[in-house]
Amino acid sequence: MTLPYAEPLIRRELGPRVIPEPFRVGEPGGDPCGLCAWFAAGEASEHQPPLWSNDDWVLCRATEVTIPGVVWLTTREHHDSFADLPDHLAASYGPVVARVERAILALEDIARVHVYRWGDGSAHFHVWFFPRPLGMLEARREMLPLWADLLPEAPADVVADAEKRIAAAMEASD
């Protein structure tokens, strides 16, 4: 595991706590949920269609991809976190995540698939899948998203091919 920055790094002091915290997108008091608007618009949406979906889950393309195979999974219905997922979604989460992981691992030269959930952006439940390229040992553990943020954008045709293969693997496992 190696930071994608040269030494010496200088530790910053924490700023004062901000209480109350600002509203997140999709939270009461915040901007409207863009995912809910996208799903409501359906075919009329200006967004690219999802890679795969069922009645409960939607597998989406990432933008500005630096590592082909980065995708994110969200619920169709608006839920904030694991804590408020209905039982049927909580029960189906593991099997869906396993299918996505298998689809990404089927791409060439993938060592591991990291699954991340950050709760500070949108209040609509979603998790990110980051494939760690085989041999990219600097990007082990929590370093993978830092490296992915700094790498050059991958060629569009390579990203599109990875997305096509992930979508086909998800459809084949339905």
Notes on the protein architecture:
The protein is an alpha+beta fold and 174 residues long. It has helices at residues 34-41, 87-105, 144-150, 156-172, and strands at residues 52-53, 57-61, 71-75, 110-116, 126-133. It is globular, with a radius of gyration of 17 Å. The N and C termini lie far apart (36 Å). The mean pLDDT is 94.
From the N-terminal CA to the C-terminal CA, the straight-line distance is: 36 Å
Helix- and strand-based class? alpha+beta
Q: Whole-number average pLDDT? A: 94
Q: Tell me the radius of gyration.
A: 17 Å
Question: Could you give the order of strands across the largest sheet?
Answer: 1-2-3-5-4
List the uncertain runs.
Answer: none
Give the SSE string: HEEEHEEHH
Task: Give the helix tally.
Answer: 4
CA-based shape = globular
Query: Could you estimate the helical fraction of the residues in percent?
Result: 25-40%
Beta-strand level of the residues, as a percent range? 15-25%
Query: What composes the largest sheet?
Result: 5 strands, antiparallel
